[in-house]
Amino acid sequence: MRKLTVFQVFFMLAMVGFIVGVPELARADYAQPPWDAALQTLVNSMTGSTAHLISILAVAGLGILAMGGRISIHAALSVVLGIAIVFGAATIVNMFVK
User: Fold this and answer.
1) What is the C-alpha separation between 59 and 70, in angstroms, rounded?
2) I want to staple 32 with a disulfide (CB 3.0 to 4.6 A). Which of 25, 36, 47, 65 is the partner?
């Protein structure tokens, strides 16, 4: 077994002291993980009213491009399917979870 250096012993004692001295960093008393709020903000921004308005404009733009023959039907349907998946993601996930 090799001997520990002074630095290694000091580092371990410092870490133990830090963990004991700052117990809220362990987040043992919180009901939600710390990243939950950030992820919920991301979901709200992807499915909120601004996202709905952008989706409406995207579908309207696709319709105009399709009428002018500038975009294929396959590409237009891909965008519409992507929008449907983004806004229906919560329902899709709930089907598998429950």
Assistant:
1) 14
2) 36
Is residue 33 within 8 A of residue 27, CB to CB? The reply is: yes
The DSSP symbol for 4 reads P
Note whether residue 60 is domain-resident.
yes
User: What gap in Å lies between CA 55 and CA 63, rounded to an integer?
Assistant: 12
- pLDDT in the model for residue 12: 86
- Domain membership flag for residue 55: yes
CB of 65 closer than 8 Å to CB of 71 = yes
If pLDDT is split at 50, 70 and 90, which confidence band does 19 have? confident
| Both tokens assigned to 62 | 């696709």
The answer as to whether 1 is a domain residue is no
Contact, 55 vs 88, CB < 8 A? no
- Give every CB contact of residue 46 below 8 A, 6+ residues apart in sequence: 86
Q: How many domains does one find in the chain? A: 1
Q: Which residue has tokens 């404009």?
A: 57
